[in-house]
Amino acid sequence: MSSIAIKRKSVALIGNPNTGKSSLFNALCGSSARVGNYPGVTVEQKIGTLLQSAIPTDVIDLPGTYSLAARSADEAVTIDVLCGARSDTPRPDAIVVIVDATNLERNLYLVSQVFELGLPTLMVLNMWDRAESEKHRIDVGQLSERLGISVVCTTASRRAGVEKVRDAIGRLLDAPSGRSDALFPRNEFPKVFLEESEKLQSQLSSRGVSLPLLEVDRMLIDRDGHFERNAAQKFPGILQELSEARQRLEASGVKIPLFETKSRYAWVRRQLDGLVERPPVNSTSLSDRIDRWLTHRWIGLIFFVLLMFLIFQSITALAAWPMEWIESTQGILQNSVEQFIAPGALRSLLVDGIVAGIGSVLIFLPQIAILFLFIAILEDCGYMSRAAFVVDKMMSTVGLSGRSFLPLMSSFACAVPGIMATRTIDNSRDRMVTILIAPLMSCSARLPVYVLMVSAFVPSGIKYLGGWVSLQGIVLFAMHSVGALVAIPIAWALRRYAFPGQPSTFLMELHSYKWPSVYVLYQRVFERVAAFITRAGSLIFCTSIVVWAAGYFPGDHTKLDNAIREMEKIAKGADRSNEGNQEVAGESGDLRSSLEAVQKNINQARSELIDRSFLGMAGRWIEPVVKPLGWDWKIGVATIASFPAREVIIATLGTIYSLGANENEESEGLKEQMRAETWPDGRPVYSLATALSVMVFFALCAQCSATLMTIQRETNSWKWPIFSFVYMTLLAYFGALITYQIASGLGLAAR
Ligand code: GDP
Ligand code: MG
Fold first, then answer.
1. Which helix (H) or strand (E) covers residue 15, if one does?
2. Which residues line ligand 1 (CB under 6 A)?
3. How confident is the model at residue 666 (pLDDT cuts 50, 70, 90)?
């Protein structure tokens, strides 16, 4: 039946950033997307299968771009894919260009460039809900007729109109239709330019290289651009000819590259003439009235800081209940393992290694979910772009622009996507500096460390302003700010000495505020939570086992296991006699004293065993280095174990203290175990000063192999990840040292 192989088709999605491309892509392809990188470059490649399509069709989500000028890496890949110049991606059979219906004029600039590719094209007017609520009137039928292509209106975030897009793509692939050259936006260019371009094209073809006019145009317009460099590799002589042609053009009054913008906007305006009616700019709309305050130079900044402060205040309060629930589940799990497995290595591995390790990390899930929910709400309602605008001025004092704000803001979630988001920064020096300071932003993996230390060692009872502001919340907020504050002088120094040059200007449009979409919130939070669980389940699972083994071996555990067995026998006997008669006071007193004796044996055996373990040996070796920070060897070892991923410290501490626990209650929280830790002379190990020093160390250190790998990939060199690692580790050590010394000077080292 299928003797005729059906050729797979492909469709490319293209559009300005933030027009809803990814939303439409997800709606069209469901979960079939494959995400990777274009080989050889750091641009993300995203391909999915068009669902419910008669012809098997791939959908390519191209990077968002304002133009095909091929200046940034994203644009270069985009235009290469569209021209069929990449061997890894076939040339698309059709293009879907996504347009923000509330901003037709600027979006049609890209459309005018897309038209010149000569591929069958479908235009999607997305953000239709916004266009309607903001009362834009667009004569879609007339527009479609003028441009000679189909136009579909959608609200991609709510999946409205997606079926129409699917149908239209089907029709486009079924009967591809060309457009008449009369519509060629290029006709708007000055005549001299057209002549120069055609001359160059024929010169090239006489040398056996035939290029479409579009590419020759770009070669001429984009000085030192992608196409110029490509051509110069084949025959260096082209550079001379290009510069002569440009000189002739300038001499006859054609300003490169300005004329292109002018010509294309003239074309765009002609297409839209009489078809679009925008509401009169109404400066008293609610959104604008809000913005008069929120984007105000100082008030806006104060509001932003207050808002972040409030968020961190409420995280601890909101997460308390689900955290308790996770903690008690962990206890139940450990108890039931103990019911069924006899004392020994296996039981210790399960209870002290795996359940204690993973449980102590999972407990932070509620906080992470809540933080992400807040960030997603702020992003989706439109506040985040205001924040970028407000901090732009501040960023420019250190030589960066508001464009670096979103990558840095997303680094508060995780530096990996944050660093990848710097691809949208077209100034390469700005981009490098942003990449190098992004790991200083306090990512979600640091949150568990802060929360553990804060909840264990910062008194919870201290409240200010009538109970609304807690000391715990203040410390949590301060820890999130430390990295960002330290990043300021570092960015300034890098910009000044390592990457000198003019800062770039930053333009951004602010849509009116809207209610966040529940679906988007759910997706964002779910994604982060799933990523966190995966990490806890893989990396942390493995480290837990390694750390457990290092803390369990090479000691002889027979004495300990026997003591535990004896203890359980006594405890069972006690249970039985309690059931029989609860009033036998003398007997239960005997029981208690023999229980206490066995317990003492167990405690002693445990702490001897962990002292003599591999972990203990390593610990004594590093103790002199970490002692000035106020740390004992256990904190030192746990910190070293967490260099691949910082949140591992929790699991490691969980395992170490569980193995060497000084009390019987193994299911007791990590917090209590830490509070009970003492130096050999009996002083408690942990104090507020120690907790602050640990937190500052974790705030500043580059303990994340994924981040370092990402820096390597994005900068395409080992120099920068090594640089980041060294400077952040030094910063962390000395930061922690200073913190501890100051804090103990203030008397915070005693409890
Ligand atoms: P991309 O940058 O082009 O890939 O855009 P995204 O798909 O990431 O969307 C950017 C933002 O616009 C997200 O917050 C979406 O929820 C939102 N969005 C997408 N489509 C629509 C739409 O049709 N209407 C509205 N109001 N918002 C949308
Ligand atoms: Mg996208």
1. strand 9-15
2. 15, 17-23, 64, 126-127, 129-130, 155-157, 380, 514, 517, 520
3. very low
